[in-house]
UniProtKB/TrEMBL annotation:
It comes from the Bacteria. InterPro entries: CIS_TMP (IPR045538). It comes from Neolewinella litorea. Pfam families: CIS_TMP (PF19268). This is Uncharacterized protein.
Length: 397
């Protein structure tokens, strides 16, 4: 079983001693063929070997240099040379020793609180959940400081998104705030649920701020003057990129169930998002990091805060099921495929979502049975729902 590979940027350089500039286009075409026929397949093969199922390999960067004696034999010699050089570099590289360390977990949690997505370079969702669950009971006041400063600036985001972080994150945060410097990670959590009113959290934060280490208070200064610096997210990795295949039906579905009015407004975004998530997964237990593409289709940015609905009514689910049945009926190439077959075969598909001028671009991972897409009765290469300002360009290859 092959894994998923998230590569942030890939660059290919070719140094030649002397080439006529008029041959630049020809060399560009040759490099594109090498990329498609040699580099990408070999990367997939070796990454799968070095990181089998259940194992995560996280590399900051990987540099592979190859020197060839005869450029006229580039197509013949490059594949073997690249395979050897790549194997050597991968063998020398190793993943972080402690994925649950504060240096890794705290920035990842802070990133999620601010953007609703996991940082691109965090290994996997399972690793994030496991890391947070291991780290939380041992978190120190120093670990909590940047997270609680975010609470002061965005209390609603902290509470809403914090409820989605595993390991009883909100319970532990409230426990730290109420115990101040006396907090001992080994003490059991109180059985009381933390308040849902942001005012209570902010008031408790102000008390905590001056009860903690004075050095922290002096370093931070007035809380409102201490900006939180986050690296810009350049790409999102939706697991359900195949949702774009349903785009002609989405507006009708949301209006049918009353999640969107006839005027095109979005009065119930949490419910609309949960409904689109249900279309693809058959489940309603979604969290914000599941929804970057859903947000874009609803006219939001993936980083916009969206309180996630935790349930759908029976009538909502029935309307979504009827939509899938309608798609199967119109897409005759699917034959006797059922809803789960449609979901697993086409809708639950990894993708890469990036911001481009005038809208968004979605790259969708292809599979052998995608030949059936040629018999889909509608196009999905350029999408614009009634709520989107820009367009979504889809490259399914």
């Amino acid at each position: 079983m092959a894994g998923q590979h998230h590569i942030r940027r890939q660059e290919l350089f070719l140094e030649l001693p002397s080439v006529d500039p008029r041959q630049a286009n020809r060399w560009h075409d040759r490099l594109e063929r090498l990329q498609e026929r040699v580099i990408e397949p070999e990367l997939r093969r070796q990454l799968d070997c070095h990181a089998p199922p259940g194992v995560t390999l996280h590399l900051d960067h990987l540099d592979v240099e190859i020197a060839l004696d005869h450029l006229d034999r580039l197509d013949d010699d490059f594949a073997a040379a690249f395979a050897v050089a790549l194997a050597r570099e991968l063998s020398a590289a190793h993943a972080p020793a402690a994925a649950q360390s504060p240096a890794v977990v705290v920035p990842a949690v802070l990133h999620f609180l601010a953007t609703g997505t996991l940082p691109w370079d965090y290994p996997t969702l399972a690793a994030f959940e496991a890391g947070v669950s291991r780290w939380l009971p041992q978190a120190s006041t120093t670990d909590w400081w940047p997270l609680l400063r975010f609470l002061d600036r965005h209390p609603a985001w902290f509470i809403g998104r914090g409820a989605q972080v595993p390991g009883k994150f909100l319970e532990r945060a409230w426990w730290v705030l109420t115990r101040g410097t006396d907090a001992n990670p080994d003490d059991p959590l109180t059985s009381d649920h933390p308040p849902t009113d942001p005012v209570h959290w902010q008031r408790q934060w102000q008390n905590f701020r001056w009860l903690t280490d004075p050095a922290h208070a002096r370093e931070a200064g007035p809380a409102q003057e201490a900006p939180i610096i986050l690296s810009e997210t350049e790409a999102y990795f939706p697991d359900h990129a195949g949702l774009v295949l349903l785009h002609p039906y989405l507006a009708y579905l949301l209006r049918q169930v009353g999640a969107v009015t006839d005027t095109g407004d979005r009065p119930d975004l949490p419910r609309a998002a949960a409904l689109l998530h249900y279309l693809v997964t058959g489940r309603t237990d979604c969290r914000e990091w599941d929804l970057p593409l859903v947000k874009v289709l609803l006219g939001l940015s993936p980083a916009d805060y969206l309180a996630v609905a935790t349930s759908l009514s029976e009538s909502d689910r029935a309307a979504a099921d009827a939509l899938l049945d309608g798609v199967i009926g119109h897409w005759s190439a699917l034959g006797s495929t059922g809803r789960d077959g449609l979901r697993e075969g086409f809708l639950q598909r990894p993708g890469v979502l990036t911001l481009v001028p005038g809208g968004w671009q979605l790259e969708v991972e292809s599979r052998a049975h995608d030949l059936l897409l040629n018999r889909l009765p509608w196009s999905f290469s350029l999408i614009k729902t009634p709520w989107m300002e820009g367009r979504l360009h889809v490259n399914w290859s």
